[in-house]
Write a structure and sequence with these properties.
- Strand 5 and strand 6 form a beta hairpin.
- The relative contact order is 0.13.
- The protein is built from 3 helices and 9 strands.
- By secondary structure, the protein is mainly beta.
- Strands 1-2-3-4-7-8-9 form a 7-stranded antiparallel sheet. Strands 5-6 form a two-stranded antiparallel ribbon.
- The radius of gyration is 23 Å and the shape is elongated.
Length: about 180
């Protein structure tokens, strides 16, 4: 390729909007003994509200983009977790709640609101020695899926579930993990 044939290009970053994020976080952690082991119970909740204060014409002219900046993620999220460690054995269980959310389209007819969802994760661990351990677990152990896509244009493209759901669209995930400390 001849260098003289290349056109010069320039890219620059622009902040096309100003936003205000307000919210509330509540966290509770309680540690206690169970038998020979130690347990931790955790509860937390989060509420977030985002408002666009100023936006460039590129953003304000695009209904979908403007609404997604403000309301694309659930306003409510929370989880409850339980961790237990006793000798060589350990376990962690987590349930996470995601409030409802909306996938916005170019017009109101193309908006679709996803239901609130709960995901559950579980892991069991065993320390074989000071250096080696093994774990088995699962994420989304009840194989939860988001709401089905209802918009014909998305279904025609092979999209079965709401693609941007906070829980993902792949269902449960199971694993076995080995660890080594050197």
């Amino acid at each position: 390729m001849n260098v003289a044939d290349q056109s010069p290009t320039m890219s620059r970053y622009t902040n096309s909007f100003d936003s205000r994020n307000q919210g509330l976080d509540a966290v509770l952690t309680y540690r206690f003994d169970i038998g020979e082991g130690k347990a931790t119970l955790g509860l937390n909740a989060n509420y977030t509200d985002t408002k666009i204060l100023r936006a460039s014409p590129v953003i304000t002219a695009d209904r979908e983009r403007l609404l997604e900046l403000e309301r694309f993620v659930p306003r409510w999220k929370g989880n409850a977790s339980f961790t237990y460690e006793a000798g060589r054995f350990g376990m962690t269980a987590v349930a996470t709640y995601f409030g409802k959310w909306t996938d916005y389209g170019a017009n109101v007819a193309n908006d679709q609101t996803g239901s609130a969802e709960i995901l559950a994760n579980l892991e069991l661990r065993y320390r074989l020695s000071e250096a080696f351990g093994i774990a088995v677990g699962g994420e989304n152990i009840f194989n939860n899926y988001p709401d089905r896509e209802a918009r014909a244009s998305q279904i025609a493209n092979g999209i079965k579930y709401l693609r941007f759901a906070p829980i993902g669209f792949n269902g449960g995930f199971w694993y076995v993990r080995g660890t080594a400390k050197f």
